[in-house]
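From the shared-data thread, chain only:
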Amino acid sequence: MKKIFSNDKSILMELVRFVIIGLYGTLIDFAIEGWITSVVANKTSTMGHVAAFFVMFAISIVGFIVATPATWSLTSIWGFRNVEKESEEKARSLKGSLIFTFWAFMGLLGGAVIQFLGYMICIEWSGWNINILGGFNFDAMFNQGQIAVFYAWATVMVIRTAFTMVFNYLTRKFFIYKAPKAEE
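Structure, as tokens:
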């Protein structure tokens, strides 16, 4: 129990570092996606729901491309401290960055499913008729109707991000930054 809280290699400190790195990546992603969404809002507002979703998914890939190198580099030097030497060296290599990117992309795909479900709930299934696929305009965000679109968009993004963070932690912990085996 003492190891959980006691040092830099503790599980608690690892989780704290992971969350900080995840929030950093999320802020980059949120800023990129929010800005691009506001720019293309007029174009996607006239599309069908599925087509607009794929445009929004393409926008999330742009956020992913910008955020992934930042999170990989921070994770490699600071995120996981209790790592076997071989895993640490592999994680910092080109192959390790590709494995990191693969698992991060799998998280992105899982998040996309959640995003699609959230959009369909907001647009069709709930009766709310909040078209968050059409985006929002930051300049007019607080006009009547725009604030609901922003909050719905942000809620879907937070739920998607929570799923992705848990997925990313588990895949990184068990497939990339493996802890040394306990001495028997």
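The two ends are 17 Å apart (CA to CA).
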